[in-house]
Design brief:
This protein is mainly beta. It contains four helices and 18 strands. The longest helix has 11 residues. The C terminus is likely disordered. This is DNA sliding clamp PCNA. One of its GO terms (molecular function) is DNA binding. Belongs to the PCNA family.
Length: 262
């Protein structure tokens, strides 16, 4: 038996909005520690890892480890029926083939039940090694989203370069080129508006902007985003989810020689 009650139901809605365009079908794994998902996008270029820790739920019951295969688009349609202030409860029986979403309005005068069929999805669970990153940039998530959106009007790829001075986002396209530099800035009044750079050594990597723009759909979940880079590892773009977990996007850098071909 599985029963999860989330008072901030809007969090689940935002999580789905941020991943449903990247991943079509995925298994949600539930264990005593929390509710998680790990899935590749259809072209096997990007990976999404989501964790909502059990302590973040008002009520969390998961009698045994369970994996629920869901079509994320259908799940998103159901969650759209929940009001932003609604409390969302997710229920499923062991071995059942459906999952139920229950939405309660804050003053309890309206309760909706939506049942969705589960799917059998074969996915291998990828071990994501914990890595030490050469450069970690924490910056306002809206700023990062704006930069990715602006640069994609000019080019298809973004070069992210981290130095002591700051983080530079550059692109080149048919109409010209663009460079945007965000300097380290920790003296702001609000900590979420700070740009903080921790760097062992300078890193410069190239990524497809199409994916970066897809990742920034998670912007409503968090005021800040953390970008972790190392020269021989996929970048990790992480958004914290309240105080209960995170959503992380992994994307392999483009190799320079390929750029003429792609």
């Amino acid at each position: 038996m599985l029963e999860l009650r989330l008072v901030q139901g809007s969090l689940l809605k935002k999580v789905l909005e941020s991943i449903k365009d990247l991943v079509t079908d995925a298994n949600f794994d539930c264990s005593a520690t929390g509710f998680s998902l790990q899935a590749m996008d259809s072209s096997h270029v990007a990976l999404v890892a989501l964790l909502l820790r059990s302590e973040g739920f008002e009520h969390f019951r998961c009698d045994r480890n369970m994996s629920m295969g869901m079509n994320l688009n259908n799940m998103s349609k159901m969650l759209k029926c929940a009001g932003n202030d609604d409390i969302i409860t997710v229920k499923a029986d062991d071995g059942g083939d459906t999952v139920t979403f229950m939405f309660e309005s804050p003053n309890q005068d309206k309760i909706s039940d939506f049942e969705m069929k589960l799917m059998d999805i074969d996915t291998e669970h990828l071990g994501i090694p914990e890595s030490e990153y050469e450069a970690i940039v924490k910056m306002p998530s809206q700023e990062f989203a704006r930069i990715c959106k602006d640069l994609s009007t000019i080019g298809d790829t973004v070069v992210i370069s981290v130095t002591k001075e700051g983080v530079k986002f550059s692109t080149k396209g048919d109409i010209g080129s663009a460079n945007i530099v965000c300097r380290q800035n920790t003296s702001v009044d609000k900590p979420e508006e700070a740009t903080i750079i921790e760097m062992q050594e300078p890193v410069s990597l190239t990524f497809a902007l199409r994916y970066m723009n897809s990742f920034t759909k998670a912007t409503p979940l968090s005021n800040s985003v953390t970008i972790s880079m190392s020269s021989d590892l996929p970048v990790v773009v992480e958004y914290k989810i309240a105080d209960m977990g995170y959503i992380r996007f992994y994307l392999a850098p483009k190799i320079e020689e390929e750029e003429g071909e792609s």
